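A student in our group prepared the protein record below, which I am reviewing. What it holds is a sequence and that sequence's fold in token form. My question to you is simply how this chain folds and whether the tokens agree. Do not assume that whoever made the record got everything right. I have pasted the whole thing underneath without changing anything:
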Amino acid sequence: MSLMQRLERWRGMISRLPALELEGAVRALLVHFFFHTSDKQRVELVGEGPRTINVLTPTVFKGAGAFRLSNRAVFGVPRSPGSLSCSYFEARTPESLIEIGPGTVFNNRCVLISEGAFIRFGADCLVGQELQIFDSHLHDLRLAHRRSPDPSPRGVEIGSQVFIGARVTMLKGVRIGDGCIIAAGAVLTPGFEAPPMTMVGGNPARVLGPVPQD
């Protein structure tokens, strides 16, 4: 049987599948593909229990650095926009580190790039769609050197039980205390710091006040 004949046979089989079954099958295939093409040797799972990674939507892990991931972290939300798109986690240099604590859940289409420092999440964070975090400018900002890497990356530290809305951007040196809320669309400029249990929003971001209490 030729390749075209096999493709036509598969097309016929796929067209007869119920829509939800087809969506789930495609998502599972994409999850497998992107994780299979990841730099899996760089991924360290930490914590007691199963030595498996909870990747529920397409996610890729790339780079020469290290990933230290809790086996209770979750990557992707199937019943959410972008569930067939790929989240991208890169520890770009040998010195780079991305560390994710237990119970932290990422929604879809997130981008985290560590380029020589670290990006660290505590426990039980909730992360909205399309989060972007960079621990460097990715380029030297000086005009004559803009094709070179940032010479001074600075780590990004997110505490525990932080709630991050959709389409948030965090730049190098950001520090977020435990229990904070980061409003959708906020842009946290280099070196921004949020004390524990505060609400943050805006572009550029600022502290808006305390997190509401019961």
